[in-house]
């Protein structure tokens, strides 16, 4: 009897364990079950290997987190200098928010890594490059980067903690609050807000681009001679 060959064997081929596979599996685990679920033991079980096999590809949990965050940065559109700087930074901001919605565990970890990966470094370099090439001084580029990221990450964090996701769910939450509170007479402006939301709907996600445009318009102004003069006096 002939020995089965690779072509006619029913034994499934083992998928090679690589660093990329380890990292992407860890990201998928964090996306589905939260970052607390990502342990070397749990990750090894997901990959069908013994925990020690992981250490051939990532030396520690910190290196694993570095790589996971780098994959999130890969998910974000890098701004380029071949278009209007505001349009480029707007797309970058929207892309960042979308990535953080997909990978909520990464909020608060994107800027905390002391051993950043290539996508992380490339993205930060691209943002600074876009601002500097748009005419921002070094100091103003740093200020612009800071205010944009504070807004993006802050919005993403608040959005993550809201007790609703859709306008319809928002109305349901408001109705439950009203039932719990009872008499709203002392809060006329809250009554007004609730009535408008109930009648016309309100999508919290729309606020992101409104606020983003406000920031970008402000940054555009500080690039003008008037804006720079006020900045120097301050």
Task: Explain what the structure shows.
This protein is mainly α. It has a domain at 19-59: Arc Repressor Mutant, subunit A (Orthogonal Bundle), CATH 1.10.10. Helix content is 65%, strand content 0%. It contains eleven helices and no strands. The chain has helices spanning 19-33, 40-47, 51-54, 61-74, 85-102, 118-133, 138-161, 167-181, 188-200, 206-222, 225-233. The radius of gyration is 24 Å and the shape is flat. The chain starts with 18 loop residues before the first helix and ends with a helix.
Q: Tell me about the largest β-sheet.
A: none
Helical residues, percent: 55-70%
Rg, Å, rounded = 24 Å
Assign an overall shape.
Answer: flat
SSE inventory with pairings:
Blueprint: H1 19-33, H2 40-47, H3 51-54, H4 61-74, H5 85-102, H6 118-133, H7 138-161, H8 167-181, H9 188-200, H10 206-222, H11 225-233
Q: What is the gist of this entry?
A:
By secondary structure, the chain is mostly helical. It has a domain at 19-59: Arc Repressor Mutant, subunit A (Orthogonal Bundle). The chain is 65% helix and 0% strand.
Keywords:
single chain, 234 residues, mainly alpha, Arc Repressor Mutant, subunit A, 11 helices, 65% helix, flat
């Amino acid at each position: 009897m002939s020995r089965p060959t690779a072509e006619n064997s029913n034994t499934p081929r083992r998928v090679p364990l690589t660093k990329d596979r380890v990292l992407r599996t860890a990201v998928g685990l964090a996306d589905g079950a939260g970052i607390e679920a990502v342990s070397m033991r749990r990750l090894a079980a997901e990959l069908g290997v013994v925990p020690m096999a992981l250490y051939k590809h990532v030396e520690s949990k910190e290196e694993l987190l570095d790589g996971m965050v780098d994959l999130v940065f890969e998910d974000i559109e890098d701004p380029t200098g071949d278009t209007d700087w505001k349009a480029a930074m707007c797309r970058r901001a929207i892309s960042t928010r979308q990535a953080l919605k997909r990978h909520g565990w990464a909020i608060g970890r994107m800027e905390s890594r002391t051993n950043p990966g290539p996508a992380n470094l490339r993205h930060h370099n691209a943002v600074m490059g876009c601002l500097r090439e748009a005419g921002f001084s070094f100091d103003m580029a740093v200020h612009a980067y800071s205010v944009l990221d504070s807004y993006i990450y802050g919005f993403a964090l608040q959005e993550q903690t809201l007790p609703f996701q859709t306008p319809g769910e928002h109305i349901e939450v408001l109705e439950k609050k009203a039932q719990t509170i009872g008499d709203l007479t002392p809060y006329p402006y809250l009554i007004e807000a609730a009535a408008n939301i109930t009648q016309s709907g309100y999508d919290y996600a729309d606020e992101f681009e409104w606020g983003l445009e406000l920031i970008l318009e402000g940054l555009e102004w500080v690039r003008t001679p008037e804006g720079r003069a006020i900045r120097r006096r301050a």
